[in-house]
Structures are given as C-alpha cells and as structure tokens.
Amino acid sequence: MTVIGHFIGGKQIDAQSDERSQPVFNPATGTSCKQVALASKQTVEQAIEAAEAAFPAWRNTPVGKRAAVMFRFKALLEKNADKICQMIGEEHGKISHDAAGELKRGIENVEYACGIAELLKGEHSNNVGPNIDSWSEFQPLGVVTGITPFNFPAMVPLWMYPMAIACGNSFVLKPSERVPSSTLFIAQLLQEAGLPDGVMNVVNGDKEAVDVLLNDVRVKAVSFVGSTSIAEYIYTTANANGKRCQALGGAKNHAIVMPDADIDIAVNQLLGAAFGSSGERCMALSVAVAVGDAADALIERLSATMPSLRVGAYSDSNNDFGPVITRQHQQKVVGYIDSAEHDGAKIVVDGRNPQIDGFEQGFFVGATLIDAVTTEMLSYREEIFGPVLQVVRVNTMDEAMQMINDHEYGNGTCIFTRDGEAARYFSDNIQVGMVGINVPLPVPVSYHSFGGWKRSLFGDLHAYGPDAVRFYTKRKTITQRWPSSGVREGVQFSFPS
Fold first, then answer.
1. Quick one: which of 60, 113, 180, 340 is 20 to 30 A from 154 by CA?
2. pTM above the 0.90 mark?
3. Is there a single domain that holds both residue 263 and residue 216?
C-alpha cells in the first residue's frame, strides 16, 4: 500500500522507520487504499532546519523576483486544476464543482501575493529633525508555520504560505493528515515555479508534529484553522513560547430571514450555504432565524425543495454535495440530529439514512432540516459541521440579533431583507466578524481579510489579505542623519526632540 511521505528541502521524503502511519480514506466508498506517514520529532526538526537554512538567501532575494515565482505558481495551479480537484475529491469527498470553487479562491490569494512589491512598501519622512530622516520597513520573521484543516485542503494552505513566502519568510506546513495528497502536489508545483529548496516544506502528521512546531524556538509564527478547542490550545501554547499566532476556530453561523425577504431567493441561498461541501465549512449557515411570519413560508419551501438535493460521490458533477470526512464524524452528525429530536425539535427532512446506490459504505449524511429549535439545545449550542440546517423562530429582529450576539462564536452571519435601514442596523450592531446582506457566505475576497470575532478567532490579525502582510512581517523604524565632518557637536543629555 502506498505511504504518503513529506516534502522537505525541495525533495519528496518517504516515510521514515521511526514514523507511525494511518489510513487515508475515500469517504464516498468508505475504503482506504493508501497510508500517510505521521512525522516524528526528528522529521519535523529536519523540515525546520531546511527552512532555517533557506531563509537568509530568500529574505535577501529582491521582492520582484519573489513575485515572479508567485506569477509562475499561479499559472501552474491553473494548468493542473483538474488533477488537484480530483485529489481533493478522492480524499475529502467534495464534489468536483465545489473543489474547483475552492481551488479558484485559493488561487486568488496567490494572485494577491503577486503584488507583494507594492504591499511591502514602507513609509518615509524627510527632515523629522535637522537633517534627520526616518522610515519604516516590513521585514520577514524567519521560519513560520501553518497548521490547516481537512475541509479545504487546497484553499486554506493557500491563505497562508503564498503571502508568507512572498514577504520573505520560509515555511513549514502541517496539513490535515486526512487529505494529504493535494497539499503535497501543490507544494511541488511551487518548487517547479522556481522557489529555492527549503523555502517551502510540508510535513504530514498529527499532534506530535504540531507540538514540535509550537515548541521549537526557530519557528517565529503560527497560523492555524480548525476547531475552537484546538485553536485555543494552539494560541495558548504558541504565545507561551513567544510566537506570533493567529488561530481561527469554530463557528455557528446564523442567517436572519425577515418577513419582507424574498423567500424563494432566501431558500435557494440557504440551500447552498447550509449543504454545500456537506456543511463542512466554518462559514456554513447552520441556523436560520426566522422572524415572525417568515418561519412557516421558509419551512414550507425548504421542505419542498430539499428532497431533490443530490448527495453522492465527488466524480459526478450532478451531485450537490458528498460524504462527510470520516465514519466517526458521520456518527457524530447523526448524534446531533438525534439529540435535537430528543430535546423536542421537529425533524422536518431527515437525512440520517441516505441510500446511495453503489456507495453503500460511504460516510454519507443527507440534507436535514430541523424546526422548533431553541437556544438551550445541544444541537444549537455546538458546531455540527454537517449538512444540517436548524430553524429557530423569533418574534422580532432585535430578538434574533440578541441570540446571535449571545452565542460564543462570531464567525459569519447574514440577513435576508429588502429593508435597507434594517440591513444597515444589522451590519452596524451585530457582533460577528464577517457579515452578509442577502449574501449567505460572506467570505472576503483575497484583498480583504478573513476572520471572526469572539471564540471564532484567537489573535489580533485576520487571515490573508492586508492583515497577512502585518502578520508575516515585523516593522522596523530607522532614523538616520549624516552630520558634517567639519562641525563639532557637544554632548546632549536631554531627550531628543
């Protein structure tokens, strides 16, 4: 059986004798035909050493040449898009059209990194004092790392390392061990684009590998996307070791549906936002908060439309969404549906036992709609991360907003309305990091930045976009003068002004 290894110092590294391994599953079939190596401490340290050795020369590479690598990398990603999407589908289960959308959004971040020469410009002031000039520079940190989740094996890593590398850093990526193939392949494309050996490294692994990265003094910054419990651990440990850290955690994204909303539009938008990628998105809309008379119409149209949704294998582009990532997660999602039913909610559309011809052993959960959900229920409080849409009924918009503001997560939210005043009030007062107005998945484009509030983000800076330059560099301010050699100056003891 094939064992997927690592990418260190510009070379593919096979699994080492001291490393454990685990199976990589095709979620649609429920079977495994390959293994992935779980990096040992020695393997991770080898990657850090390679990155550290490559950093000085890469740091001093002219920014225009670093940008040129990103231009070539973008072209290679586009050329190999079909192959990358197939890899994503085989290991994640994501339908081919959804994988293509993920990759496109990742490529947009590479495109943003192509403009790094403009983004790294500092600031200059002439004559801040007599014949004294002052300026600031944005200098790279050194070796930085990214720890990424299974649900976006291409896009989320591309949030991180293109900008980190373009800023002059070297990188060690620890992707999810459940979806290793596309990440390794894309790293090799970056090498093909002309990146020097050691600037980009990939180590597959689990907590053992993560802890090495978090505790090694040579690693200067950590970027993470995953569950809130792990995000908090990553952030706390990184900070205790003096590292810069951004750790993006979980979500419980609400959509308010106002009585004046166009229900047909809202339903179509909710279907894609709730069930796309099997709900395994940190931006998935998992709760529809129906205000007043909107509730009955919303339930009626959703329940009439949902049975036509197609769940199946990634290779059939006519399918709407695929399986969840593992058998354990399938059982966990079904457990949340069971819990809601036990707590008194109404299962309007039940996706607990979908029948997928030819894929009976796959990790599938069908689209599920639950009505009469309350904020006390476990299924409301926790992130389900599956194709489950819950409906909560409220009387007023203020009640809906208070519910959202009271939740521990604050990642994304949206409102469906035709009332501009209501939309402005909502966007101005909701305590959530990313807000949509009739846009159910308000994921920022590459030249803005992605990040939530409250326990959806640990750290001060958001992911990618303008915040990435600030995260992956440190500001240095230089003050300079060249005094005349013919002028003698006395000692000054007062603070300069």
1. 60
2. yes
3. no
